[in-house]
Amino acid sequence: MKALLLSLIQRLLSSGRGKSFGLFFLTSLASRGVGIVCQLLQVPIALSVLGPEAFGLWMTLNSVIYLINFADLGVGIGVQNRIAEAFSLEDRREARVLFNSAFAFLSGVALLLALGLIPLSLALDPTPIFGLGDRGVISQAPLAMAVMAISFCANFPLGLAQRLAYGLQKGWMHNASQALGNVAGLAALFVAARMNASLGVIVLAATIPTVLANAALLATLLRPLGWLTFRGFACQLGVLKELLGLGALFSVQQVLSTVVYSLPAIIISSSLGAAAVTPFNLCQRLFNLFAVVQNAFMLPLWPAYSEAKARGEFGWIRRTLLRSILACGGLTILPMILGAAFAPWILKVWVGDVAAGTLPSPLLIWLLCGWNALLFLQQTFGFLLAGVSEVRRLTLYSVANALVAVPLMIWWSGSMAQAGVVLGLIVAFLPFNMLGSVLETARYFRAHPVRRGETTASKPGGATPLET
User: Could you tell me the pTM of the whole model?
Assistant: First the structure.
């Protein structure tokens, strides 16, 4: 394993393009690792102060906020692609128009969301929505909801820092800023917990460092470009319409995925009470550790597939897909199965006695393990199809998946509790997103046979992480 890792690093840093790619890969792995560690440490700190119900409410609010991330309508993805093209042509004027148009649009959306979400958070009765029973939690919930809404709205336009960093081929800067933000958030949470702060203050301490990290990154990127002033500011409606169209298909899939994957915590909270979210969340956080490795070697494949398609290297695409499937099984799924076997002991050591009564059942653990394994496996096909721009049919599969998953999760939550929600996800995912991705990949391969004599030796820009 050590020799394989050293070989991958050597290949990543073997060329000019590979150095940028490799730096992104390595910092992404480190940043995600730091983020997961901070989340793991965050749980016992927050639980010791908040208790299961308030902590479950906090996690449910996170899911609600994640649920409305689609409000950018694909502009983020669109501006990232277009800005990268503009900078590659050294057209800074076009790049600034793209950035300004996106920033103005997202700032306007953030303002509208703030005007709606903040008053709603303060006026809404959270008791029937989140199944709250503790009077202390009920009294603290409106302020916590308002704080979460403020942080989300502030991050909406500031999130363009990530897109700009990627467009400038400086994704490592975004990874570094996120790692620093996570560490600062953990430190602030620790201080708030030592002061026995309220739920609203705890939420503020955990979220404000990320807002500041994004703001600092954006300023750092804009200053060398001379874009920190309003001089030369230009926002064009035509450019904005183009950006919306560019990210439309990916946006639809993102919306559907966000809705379906955020609903479990919301359904569990509304049907079983906020405290019932805690065992689900604890188990999912454990399996998120394996997603760090999965994402680290899968994310760089998207542009590699696009490049191979443009060169007609369909044999390389086939071989890389096979290698990604093998890597997924050996580096993420098999270790995750081992982690699931020891999950009860790991979780008990992790959270201690404070949440001993809310640990997940064996059935919930293994269903979540199966759910995450399916997600990881589908990604190997999904990234290929995204890289070669074959996403139209995947959007239809995503629609069908959502229409089936939501009623199943609600229906089975009544008889099987949290396990029923996860089972609903799995049953809907298998025939649509999973099987659909496999069928679409096979269809693409049939339409693009391997050229005679094709090799991977001519692959430009250095090796990808899975080439050997």
Answer: 0.65
